[in-house]
Amino acid sequence: GKKSLHQKVVDELKHYYNGFHLLWIDTKVAARMVWRLLHGQVLTRRERRRLLRTCADLFRLVPFLVFVIVPFMEFLLPVFLKLFPEMLPSTFETESKKEEKQKKKLSAKLELAKFLQETVAEMAKRNKADTG
Fold it and tell me: Are residues 108 and 80 in the same domain?
C-alpha cells in the first residue's frame, strides 16, 4: 500500500537514527581495536577489514554531515547521492542498495570467469594444434 507523508518521514528518521546508532557502535568497536593495535596485539583479517570500513565510514560522514547541518540542504541529498553513490557511510545503506551492489559484483565476476574460460579454451586449442 501507499504510505502517507507522515509515515515516510518517520521511516526516514528511523533509518537515519539506526544508521547513526550502528556507526556509533562500529566506532566504539574500532576504538577498542586501535587500542589493541597500539598495545602490540595483532588483529585478525576480519577485524582489520571492519576497522578499515569504519574508518572509511567516518571519513564519508564529514560531507554527509554538511547536508544535515546546513538548513534545507537535505533536499539536495538525493541529487548528490545519485552523483556520488559511495558518499553515504555503509551503516546508512538500504537493503536494496546492498543487493544492487552484490548483483554488480556478481555480474563482474561472471564476466571475468567467462573471459578466463574463453582464454583457457583458446590456449587449449593452440596447444592441441601445436602438438597435433
Answer: no
Q: How far apart are the C-alpha atoms of 90 and 25, rounded to whole Å?
A: 13
* pLDDT confidence of residue 132: 67
User: Residue 73 is placed in which grid cell?
Assistant: 540542504
Question: Does 26 lie in the same domain as 5?
Answer: yes
Q: How many whole angstroms separate alpha carbon 73 and alpha carbon 82?
A: 15
- Per the structure, the count of domains in the chain is 3
Contacts with 11 (C-beta within 8 Å, 6 or more apart), sequence order: 3
Angle at 68 between CA 23 and CA 97, to 5 degrees: 55
User: Where in the sequence is the domain holding 113, given as residue range(s)?
Assistant: 95-131
pLDDT score at 25: 95
CA 51, CA 6: separation in Å to the nearest integer?
A: 37
This prediction has a pTM of 0.62
Q: Position 117: which residue type?
A: Q
